[in-house]
Amino acid sequence: MTETLLHLVLQRLDQIECPVFLHRELERFPDEELGVLRAEGILRETSRATEIPRPNHLPPGGDLIVRRTSKGIFGVADEDDYFDPIPLTEDDIRQYDISLPKLAAAIRRDNGISGSGLENHDGLIPLGQKSVEGIGSLNVYFSILNADQKDFLSRCQRLERSPQSQRIVMLTPRGVALSPEGRRILDASGIIVAALDSAFDQRSFSIDWIGILGVIESLLAEDHPKDRRVFQKQGKTWLAVYDGVPKSIGDSVGMTYICQLLQSGGQDIHAATLRGAGIGKDNTIVFGSAGEVIDDRARREYRERITEIDEELSEAEANNDLARKEKLNEEREVLNEEIARSTGLHGKNREASSDRERARQSVSAAIHRALKAIKKEHEPLWQHLKNALKIGEFLSYQPDQPTSWTT
Q: How many Cα atoms within 13 Å fall on the side-chain side of residue 140?
């Protein structure tokens, strides 16, 4: 592959946080390439260099310290390597740096990605969303400084932990070398990685989305028998197979509720039980006596988890992990709400009957939102679930004919 100036720019972004290019270094590329990047504002002239490697057109030797005098510009040696001053030109000391906001804008424009501005979270840059027919919306990110495998995988895991409803595509300046274990971690994250330097057109940042989409579509390409039913979480999305048609649907708490109902085999489940399972806890309710909203054990576990969250928040704060902080704060808020709802005056445990309607409304709304997302991607499945799901204070899955699901 012939190296272009774009390739060099992207290579440096993987190696140096704020790369700077000397003009002489770029002379091996056509003037047109430099002109395009300068016109875009991606490469911009910055202050003149104060120290430079010895230019190739000069005799061999060490680096030069730049001195401006009334007689011109000269390169001189440091104190340990004296030689006569060497005349220099403006081109010898002219240099350029990279504008990340302009680079992000060019990538968005050339690829139809909706988004604006620049937020750089320790090398992780959100670009925005790209809508793809047959796939849906993709969340697109740009990762720089990927020479350290640990740093790159940490960014992927931060995204995996954050609440997302679409598939994630991570663009990188060039291919990331991963160990077998690193590849396993990446595959488990469900994130699609695409290297810009091997995907774009030499005259723009237009990416080979056909190739990228081939990776995504291959996840759905397995042949499924007509009678097979699948409702299975895969990373940050759900694989839904109905009538032999596979579709990928975004994650949400409502999808989790529906999955639990499919697993229940027609059994009635109270809304508060589903709601408690949505935060990973068994929400115990005594119906015969309109008992407590949550029992003492669950309340104790909630408080223990809040203590753990506080410790994890301190760690996320130290690592500037914004996505993790957001998710932890959301979980903490839900747990505090559950404890508050279960506690009445003077710290007494509140009875379940006073909160049943609130649980019913919350769970019903989440399921209806999930059904709306399913309808957009897989209308036959939506029609089946619309008819088979019984939604109210007690919920259940009751199809006309016995139906088994892989979950």
A: 28
